Amino acid sequence: MSAASRGSRLQRTAARTGRALERRFGFRSRRGVLAATLGVAALCALLSLLRGQDANWDLRNYHLHNAWSLLQGRIGLDLAPAQLQSYFVPLLDVPYYLLVQHFPAPVAGAALGLLHGLAFLPLAWIAWRVLGGDPRRDRRAPLLALAGLASAAFLSELGNTMGDNSTAPLVLGALALALPGGDGRWRGMRLFAAGGLLGLAVGLKLTNAGYAVALGLAVLAAPLPARERLRAATQLTLATAAVFALVAGPWLYRVWSEFGNPLFPQYNAWFQAPLAASDVTGDIRWRPRGWGQALLWPLLFTADPYLAGEVALPQVAWAVLYLAALAAAAAWLRRRLSGVATTAPVASAVPAAVPRMVGVFFLAGFVLWLGMFGIHRYLVVLELLAPVVLWMLLRGLLPSRSGERLAWLAVAGCALVAVAGWNGWGHARWTRQAFAVERPALPAPGTVLLVGDEPHSWRVPFLWPESSYVGVASNFPESPAYVQRVRTMVAARGPALALLKATADEAGFRERRRNAKIERENRWASRLRLDRGDCGAMRWLASRGKRRELLQADRSPSGRCRFVAAATATAGHGGDAPAAGRDREQLVAAAALARRYGLRMAVEDCSSHASRVGDAAFPYLLCPVEWTARAPGAR
């Protein structure tokens, strides 16, 4: 067979394969849509499992605790045990808490990945609508949706509990349902459903409020009769408000009744709740400084990701979008001044309302995010939409065949950069039990003081249920009344303990992890029958690369070969004297902080205890605390 014949045959085979994949996973049928969605969701679940047990700071600080506190009805018993975040709406955290309580930890990780992957469905639906009369939109819509899932913020939270990924399918579903139909008209039931999804998203995570405003503006900006727009916006608003009130209303009212501020302690400058400082607003650390920074912010936080968060999330999508938007604005202005029609070719075959609404939602959402938060991970919804918007901009600028290739290159390039720079918020290796906390065999103290701004409250569900838990010297904006409440609780409830961070024995932890790995390798060697004979195969494996410094193969008393840790790898692990010194420094600092409340902490009587998330060790200290009659000192 000639080379030409072989090439032609390969092309036909590739074409048949492509058609088969499109029939199965394309958007030509409901079966294809369902298969594609389930496939992407399953892939996200697998990636979540490969990443390991979620161990992010927020999970350890409040996600686990707040769900437990809600289920146990502890809002009046404890006082800010999860610091400033103690009174966030906890409903979104309840399913994860129940999963890790009743199932192996990987089940919860897979469930979160599966949930996050469902964002593919509304995202592909939006892309399909934007592409309008494009004859290849059945293939292109899923590809644009996949590119959206390959974004920095979404990937960083894949399979974790922060909530931005978990509520993204709801917000995107609301946008998809709020788009007018093919006849350019809205359907009442779809608008009510969109409002329901949006109200649920905001009720579960209040940072989605900006997207609710953005969607309302998008409806009002649609190029449809004013009466229709006003009616649609009213329906959407009523449905959103009703569902939000049902979901978050009871909790916000409970917090308001208890403290005098439904968002306690945030925005206390408005509510003046006595237990929090009177000048507290929101977190403004990540907002731009002045108009100059604001106008260049997409370029600035692309160049320096730490401007928008504690963890760097490398990406170029925002810079590319920014430059494409400037070019599109310049082209529009030039056409306007020259008297040429300003309708972009890509939008000419579709109802103008769809691309305009998506564009207004995207722009308004970004501007609101910039003014309210500036925190990168809150951009998950917009980063998921970014490939669709980038496609709209570039195809409008360059409607030719070469423009199409450039659009695909830009979308693919942005996705590849995000995947290559994939970063996360903290993971550990899987264990069957997600969390384990050693509870000392002591009588239940009346009060446990969680000292410092380290995340302690994840341990609380595993300690004494009879005790009260109070955050002190943390990130909570305490008022003098808060300090007095702490003293009153300690005096009224009897013996108290202070819980502090202990320094992990990193060397011992590494040794235990290495020994567990060696045992797994020995089991595999036995299954593969490599431990028979003269140990030649195992010695060869132990000598490869870096492993020769960590492993050696030796014959055990049973006559079988085994991997054992090399002598050089075990030397120097006899103890961690510097850790003890660091713990001492922490205890002295904690004692000084405790004096702010007029309390005495017995530093010499502290005891150390083990706790872990997955296989990551987070030891802690418990120290006796006594109430004194002395008034607290100056802060």
From TrEMBL:
Membrane-spanning segments: 107-131, 143-162, 191-224, 236-253, 316-334, 346-369, 375-394, 406-425
Highest taxon of the lineage: Bacteria
The entry's keywords: Membrane, Transmembrane, Transmembrane helix
Entry protein name: DUF2029 domain-containing protein
Organism the protein comes from: Pseudoxanthomonas broegbernensis
Lineage per the UniProt record: Bacteria, Pseudomonadati, Pseudomonadota, Gammaproteobacteria, Lysobacterales
